[in-house]
Amino acid sequence: MQEAQHKQRRRIKNGSGATISDVSREAGVSTATVSRILNNPEQVSPKTKAVVQSAIEKLGYRPNAAAQSLAARRSYTIGVLVPSISNMLYAIMLDAFKQVIERANYDLMLSSFDYGIDNIRPRVEKFIQRGVDAVFIASVEPDPAVAAILANRDIPFTTTWLADGTAQPRIVYDHLGAAIKPAQHLVELGHRKFALFTGPRTRNRRLRERHDAIAGHLLAKGIAPGDINTIEIPVYDLKHAREAFRNVLDKGGNQTAVIASNDIVA
């Protein structure tokens, strides 16, 4: 017993770290009890947890995440895929998502597909290789192949920003209703000439739908087609949005109202 304790102290002093066996020996409990406290603390009495926690702090024990994942057959990691890390809308979403999963002891593995729909599948396959427990995708275009890959591997997943009408698990909001509201408000104020700023619609279904909904509402309210000036910004960032707006001002257009397709453009 004394020899084991001596080896334990020597190993910790040399920086090789305490093991779960060291903790169990220090606390006077089995390694199975220590494991339960680390993975399922609700199954152990408060008194035993306090003793084991004291031993953990005394020895400076840090659980081996890889070993825990192997034992539990879970990585406690969720793969999150977004169109762009630089877009503040996704940054806000990621921050909220991260706070929620951390309360459940999960970590976030982040990747982006740079607005390229063809990049989604290889990014998801890399998540699978890394052993994530679930996948969350913020994408505007559904990909049945990706859904099939995840379903076949029994990996839970959901998407957001997906257009309505898809069969994939998704979290959506009424983006068309939200887009029309500013147009309604401006028409009610008496505006009749509009500049409508949008992003690259060819690769973004939601942008196309949003633009068409706004333009359709304006036309339905009697706005002439020639009084709806659509300006498509090639890159979704502040620099290009400013340049596009300055160009409209420099040309001396007669628009009295501006509608932006999202917060970045606004």
Number of domains as seen in the coordinates = 3
Q: Tell me roughly what share of residues is in helical segments.
A: 40-55%
Going across the biggest sheet, name each strand in turn.
2-1-3-4-5
Largest sheet: 5 strands, parallel
- Rg over alpha carbons: 27 Å
N-C termini distance: 70 Å
Protein architecture, described:
There is one protein chain. With 266 residues, the protein is of the alpha/beta class. The chain contains 11 helices and 8 strands. It has 3 domains: 63 residues, lambda repressor-like DNA-binding domains (434 Repressor (Amino-terminal Domain), Orthogonal Bundle), CATH 1.10.260; 98 residues, 3-Layer(aba) Sandwich (Rossmann fold); 86 residues, Rossmann fold. The protein is 48% helix and 14% strand. The strands form 2 sheets. A 5-stranded parallel β-sheet has the order 2-1-3-4-5, sandwiched between helices. The chain has a 3-stranded parallel β-sheet with strand order 7-6-8, sandwiched between helices. Helix 2 crosses helix 4, helix 7 packs parallel to helix 8 and helix 9 runs parallel beside helix 10. The radius of gyration is 27 Å and the shape is elongated.
